[in-house]
Amino acid sequence: MTLHRIKTAIYALYLTNKFGFKLTGEHTAKDVTKIRLHYAETLLSHLKISINVKGTDKIVKGQQYLIVSNHRSIIDPLIVEIALKNSGLNGLWIAKKELYNSFFFGMFTRNAGTILLDRESKTMSPFFTGVKNKVKSGYSICVFAEGTRNKTTQTLAEFKEGAQIIAIKNRLPILPVFIETNANQALESSLKNSKDALSATIIIGEQIDYKDRSDTLQTLYKSRFNLS
Q: Does domain 3-225 have CATH number 3.40.50?
């Protein structure tokens, strides 16, 4: 491991816990969104990765959504946060139990308004109840429909059925977002102290009606971005 990579990891740990601490206590939804966005902008700036956002006109102000994204890199949530800047959306991420207990991400994850998904639980009822309560409070829900990072050579890994269930149960229109750039490659270049200008592009697509059963969510998602 290079000295630059070690320094970056230490700074990222410091920053993640600094903002995780800022999120402790009671905050309005707007304040939580603002703090998370500040964290995303600060860390991506340090990594020297700029974000290009396309299709912001697809977002309807005042509308709640299930925001569905693809997932290749640990910095993908930061990219989605940037994409939703100035949208008026207050989105909560669904986070798996492992992130709650993570040395690196634990404090931030627990305090950032995430909804815990415990895959080892015998029943998913508490999870869906938690989601419904947050939606009733005016939040949008953010999810990586693949369930985990896609480490294959395919553009998308198989979507889990949970995303569509959330949309149907809560009558949420689905806002598809596609991180066009493999952000993991940009991150690796940054960690190697590349002198190149680094960037990632994210595209916001036309919303999908939660009642649309004409095809699977994955196929409908692909159609929004002309993916094969």
A: no
